[in-house]
Design a protein that fits this description.
The protein is mostly beta strands. The chain folds into 2 domains: 42 residues, no CATH class; 122 residues, Immunoglobulins (Immunoglobulin-like, Sandwich). Helices cover 10% and strands 38% of the residues. The strands form 2 sheets. Strands 4-5-3-7-8 form a 5-stranded antiparallel beta sheet, with no helix packed on it. A hairpin with a 2-residue loop joins strand 4 and strand 5. It is elongated and about 55 Å long. The N and C termini lie far apart (54 Å).
Length: 172
């Protein structure tokens, strides 16, 4: 009985806050964060569309990976970080590019610098050795940080790529 009263009470508070206060809190037309809601521009979430593209090849236990990170806007970003997850362990002791760091024996994180809202961005080239000589490797590429921006199109910054050991380039 108390839980039901609490829900009704909380709903009443939210509705009363949204009725004519200009707070931008509540439900219905005009509610939420954005222009005309009483929320200052500097407090509104930034909107940006981070995208990762590139290619991967595997041959003789060597993975060659190109990661290109861009931003399709509408706002500029201070940067973004991608997580590269591999289905097989990678050989220990390998040096990574300056923009990348190890997150385990199957994970690499790579950061992109400032990203203007024009689609162009940074590029990282990785040359990695696997443990052994696998017939294939799957690679999961995802954005793990984008400065807190709202990304209305997250599909272009999440990829699952199956890479057979043919030496061919597999584009994502």
């Amino acid at each position: 009985m108390r839980k039901a009263m609490l829900v009704v009470s909380t709903t009443a508070v939210v509705l009363s806050m949204s009725a004519g206060t200009g707070s931008g809190v509540g439900v219905g037309p005009g509610a939420g964060v954005g222009p005309g809601t009483g929320v200052p521009a500097e407090q509104r979430p930034v909107e940006a569309d981070v995208a990762h593209h590139g290619h991967i090849s595997l041959s003789g236990g060597r993975l060659a990976l190109r990661l290109s990170t861009g931003n399709h806007g509408p706002s500029d970003l201070a940067g973004a970080t991608a997580r590269l997850g591999f289905s097989v362990p990678l050989a220990a002791g390998q040096k990574l590019p300056e923009a990348c760091l190890w997150g385990g024996d199957q994970v690499v994180y790579c950061r992109a610098g400032a990203l203007r809202a024009d689609g162009r961005g940074s590029e990282v080239l990785l040359d990695l050795r696997t443990v052994g000589d696998p017939a294939e490797v799957s690679v999961d590429i995802t954005t793990v940080w984008n400065g807190g921006a709202d990304d209305g199109n997250p599909d272009n910054d999440r990829h699952h790529v199956l890479v057979p050991a043919t030496g061919d380039l597999y584009v994502y």
